[in-house]
């Protein structure tokens, strides 16, 4: 009896092994259904390959204001740190030493001219007097010469003419001097009341620093416009180039702020060394509309968009079976079979892979290729209770439901 | 516990149990065990269907209907299979019993008791096929215990394949048990008993092959 059992058991084992061999060998004729529980539709996505880096928000420009002792005596600051300034806002005031000197010089020159003008007045007066005297003598007592008549008259006329010319010249000189005086008065007037001079801001922004010890630069103004600065590692460097679109993110910001990578330094920030990796500074200009939201000094996460594909057919990377030469996916097709398809991959990003060829968006792809028993064979799946909806039952007629149960019964 | 039906003992220790069954006047617990085994049959068919085994015909609908609808159809398939399990259990207990009962003058209860040893073999087969289906994709038609795999190598005729796939080691075991008990119970010529038993199961297999062959989802 035991022998019989042993023979039967051996026969059974051989039978089962033979069956397994026949069913599982390559190109087996036996149908092998795949137990597939997870599949995914080929997606349609915009894939963007990004490179992440750390950055910090800084003002785009820093404007320094210098003060020179020669300009004059410093009077005081008109702004304090943190103040907003516009183009033209006075920053500090000083009184000019030179101007006082200039003024004194002008006053002296003016008074000299006034004296000169008075002198000319006196001379003119004397000349007019001389002229009047000369006229009266010619009428009362005319000197008579030997031949009788005109010689004395002639000399008198000559003198009158020369005096007249003299007066005319003096008047002209006076006019010149007075014009000169007027010019000096204008100059003096122009300095009047402006003995305290102000220095105006040339840019708009915020006062970052005021140096009360009057060490240059005495005022530092930062522009309102922010930019982001950071560094790329050597490895990152080959992926990025100037002009790439950038998104900036931080806890302090709502959403993302767009910008452009404007500058990548050719030379690392510290002296290159064999032992350590080099970091290359970069700059990002942010889009204008976002200026206000961003806080200067905050640390941000920078995502540089290095590659982008729009409306790409995508599948999870895990769904791809990597062969020796090609990659494959398994499509659950409309004939109820698992179809193996060769694909060509595009951009790979965040676990998603762009399908350049192989499947269209909407097609169903097996998520775990290792679950596929054999290509071009049927598949079945476990009941997914979570996907059941009461509504689908209500929408279905009782007859159809009964029909489905009957079909299930006869399987 | 004296004369109670002990299903597993009767199954494995049939030499002892055949005599016991023949000599006992009362066979208590038959109805209870029958009911329990029928329910167990429904449960095992339901579990198998829960994993979707046998629901390949629904797969082609996956691309055309919504996920909710797809799952609903799978649930209805499971319901159908559970009912099938119950019917299968009942048929496998009552039909052979009644068949042999009409051919002999032995109490029906004793035949029912025999079937209580046979049905667990079928249920065990159904249960063992679940891990094979899930891990290796070997569903009923390619079951390693049946002739279906060989059938697929020798013919393309689906009916023959289905028929061969319903002949398995477990079925052989069931026939052997059935034969042993019936031979003892009826005291008939062993050859005739063997012929009757095999004949009965041949009819079952042909019928199940026919059901598998006919694609009811296309008819209904």
Automatic annotation (TrEMBL), chain A:
One of its GO terms (molecular function) is efflux transmembrane transporter activity. Residues 227-304 form the YknX-like beta-barrel domain. Residues 64-215 form the YknX-like barrel-sandwich hybrid domain. Residues 137-156 are annotated as: Disordered. Pfam families: Beta-barrel_YknX, BSH_YknX, RND-MFP_C. Residues 167-194 form a coiled coil. GO terms for cellular component: efflux pump complex. Gene3D superfamilies: 2.40.30.170, 2.40.420.20. Residues 1-22 form the signal peptide. Residues 311-366 form the Multidrug resistance protein MdtA-like C-terminal permuted SH3 domain. Keywords: Coiled coil, Signal. This is Efflux RND transporter periplasmic adaptor subunit. It comes from Mesobacillus boroniphilus.
TrEMBL record, chain B:
The chain crosses the membrane at residues 34-54, 75-102, 160-181, 193-216. It comes from the Bacteria. This is Yip1 domain-containing protein. Keywords: Membrane, Transmembrane, Transmembrane helix.
């Amino acid at each position: 009896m035991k022998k019989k059992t042993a023979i039967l058991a051996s026969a059974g084992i051989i039978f089962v092994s033979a069956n397994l061999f026949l069913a599982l060998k390559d190109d087996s004729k036996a149908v092998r259904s795949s137990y597939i529980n997870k599949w995914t539709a080929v997606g349609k996505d915009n894939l963007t390959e990004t490179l992440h880096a750390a950055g910090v928000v800084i003002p785009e420009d820093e404007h320094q204001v210098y003060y020179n002792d020669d300009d004059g005596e410093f009077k005081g600051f008109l702004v304090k740190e943190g103040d907003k300034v516009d183009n033209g806002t006075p920053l500090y005031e000083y009184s000019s030493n030179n101007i006082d000197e200039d003024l004194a010089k002008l006053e002296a020159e003016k008074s000299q001219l006034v004296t000169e003008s008075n002198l000319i007045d006196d001379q003119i007066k004397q000349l007019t007097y001389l002229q009047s005297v000369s006229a009266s003598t010619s009428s009362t007592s005319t000197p008579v010469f030997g031949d009788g008549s005109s010689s004395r008259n002639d000399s008198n006329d000559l003198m009158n003419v020369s005096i007249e010319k003299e007066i005319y010249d003096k008047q002209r000189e006076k006019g010149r001097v007075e014009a000169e005086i007027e010019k000096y008065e204008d100059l003096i007037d122009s300095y009047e009341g402006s003995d305290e001079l102000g220095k105006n801001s040339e840019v708009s922004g915020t006062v970052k620093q005021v140096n009360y010890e009057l060490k240059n630069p005495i005022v530092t103004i930062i522009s309102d416009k922010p930019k982001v600065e950071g560094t790329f590692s050597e490895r990152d460097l080959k992926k990025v180039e100037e002009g790439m679109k950038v998104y900036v993110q931080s806890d302090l910001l709502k959403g993302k702020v767009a910008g452009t990578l404007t500058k990548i330094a050719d030379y690392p920030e510290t002296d290159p060394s064999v032992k350590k990796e080099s970091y290359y500074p970069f700059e990002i200009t942010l889009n204008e509309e976002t200026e206000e939201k961003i806080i200067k000094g905050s640390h941000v996460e920078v995502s540089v968009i290095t590659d982008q594909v729009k409306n790409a057919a995508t599948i999870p990377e895990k769904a791809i079976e990597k062969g020796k030469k090609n990659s494959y996916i398994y499509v659950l097709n409309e004939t109820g079979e698992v179809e193996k398809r060769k694909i060509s991959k595009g951009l790979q990003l965040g676990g998603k892979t762009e399908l350049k060829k192989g499947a269209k968006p909407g097609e169903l792809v097996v998520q775990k290729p290792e679950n596929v028993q054999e290509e071009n064979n049927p598949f079945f799946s476990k009941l997914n209770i979570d996907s059941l909806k009461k509504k689908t039952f209500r929408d279905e007629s009782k007859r159809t439901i009964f029909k489905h149960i009957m079909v299930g019964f006869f399987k | 516990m004296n004369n109670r039906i002990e299903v597993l003992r009767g199954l494995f220790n049939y030499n002892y149990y055949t005599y016991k069954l023949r000599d006992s006047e009362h066979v208590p617990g038959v109805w209870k065990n029958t009911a329990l085994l029928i329910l167990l049959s429904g449960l095992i068919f339901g579990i198998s269907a829960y994993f979707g085994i046998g629901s390949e015909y629904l797969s082609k609908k996956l691309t055309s209907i919504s996920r909710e609808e797809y799952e609903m159809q799978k649930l209805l398939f499971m319901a159908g299979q559970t009912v099938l399990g119950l019917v299968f259990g009942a048929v496998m207990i009552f039909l052979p019993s009644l068949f042999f009962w009409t051919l002999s003058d032995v109490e029906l209860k004793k035949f029912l008791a025999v079937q209580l040893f046979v049905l667990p073999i079928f249920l065990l087969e159904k249960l063992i096929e679940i891990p094979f289906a899930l891990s290796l994709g070997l569903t009923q038609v390619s079951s390693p215990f049946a002739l279906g795999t060989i059938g697929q190598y020798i013919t393309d005729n689906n009916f023959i394949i289905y028929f061969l796939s319903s002949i398995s080691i477990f079925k052989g075991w069931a026939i052997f048990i059935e034969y042993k008990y019936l031979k003892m119970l009826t005291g008939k010529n062993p050859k005739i008993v063997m012929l009757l038993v095999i004949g009965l199961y041949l009819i079952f297999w042909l019928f199940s092959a026919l059901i598998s062959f006919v694609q009811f989802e296309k008819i209904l």
